[in-house]
């Protein structure tokens, strides 16, 4: 019999501390890199400042104030029927500078309270240990993940939380979208390797050789930290399920020109490079030529490769928002005007932010990844960023329902194909700050939060039409999608 969603399928939603938690400077929390990044818009990049300036808006400082409203929000998630809730730990809430030996007890207590609240409703936490939350002190004093010392600081963090929450948390992710360190904004957010005031680097900006060298060196240190964390976590609690998390995307050749086909094949490696290291425990076969072509030499110590081999993950999780097309045709690229989004696919529509909507690409990617790795899969980010209008205390977001419905249909097709898909946590299950632009206007949630781009609003929560629709989806285990 062909499979549909399994009975124990983990339906839920996803968030990140820097985008929804708030509570900046409360109860001993230190500065993260995100606390030094201003708001922006689609046309105005977010700005990094070493000094916090009173006349600028830093969205992470308040975000949507989950820190004070977690009981209200978790109750709403429970009302929808969540089986799992993906959230991240704010590293600086537990280790304010990042290099301390002893943790901040009030920070530990906060997350224990959050996890206890989840447990009250039978919701399984899925915890991202590092989600664009490197302590500012580690950037400023150590150079971030370029410094191998960060491995030990991270492992101390892991040791504390693995022991502290072993009775409350089963599922962990070591790093969020770890492959984003290879891209523009990852320098600060993922690697903590920029300390000068300035605009966040655009995804489309061509990196220098030095930047590429720094990124892959920092990434090697994160690979080691992840592998060691997996081993440590399993030692502390053999029941722990510890996964990787990769920014995923389907990439098609723009034409049947062999040059386009080869290029698309090469660009699909963004899904494999980090996955191969974290799932297979070794750098992929194409690394040698890739590094030679880029002029990169990653410094490794004796025993590093053995560490990677020993610390492979239990499951592969990824984000999926869109597909792109690859081409060598310069005229076609100029016409599209956005390198990271790829060449426009004439068969697809796009979101308000230019992201091409492609539900079938999710099925394609699931089959591609599962065929490569043969371990359980989780989609831990997926959703539609859109401009929502609050009317009569609700939002009529049929466009979001349509987007998710079609993606869930393709998830079911992938399961029928034989993919071992175990969970789905749509991104921004409650409206939160956009990581790319720092806006509130770009909304993903099932729950509307009254706050605007300038930080004004009551922060009151309102159920959208999609809230009630997703509740039906979960209750029916994916059968009722109307």
Automatic annotation (TrEMBL):
Pfam families: Glyco_hydro_1. Its EC number is 3.2.1.86. Gene3D superfamilies: Glycosidases. Keywords: Glycosidase, Hydrolase. PROSITE patterns: GLYCOSYL_HYDROL_F1_2 (PS00653). One of its GO terms (cellular component) is cytosol. The keyword Transcription regulation does not apply. GO terms for molecular function: 6-phospho-beta-glucosidase activity. GO terms for biological process: carbohydrate catabolic process. Belongs to the glycosyl hydrolase 1 family. This is 6-phospho-beta-glucosidase. The lineage of its organism: Bacteria, Bacillati, Bacillota, Clostridia, Lachnospirales. The gene is ascB.
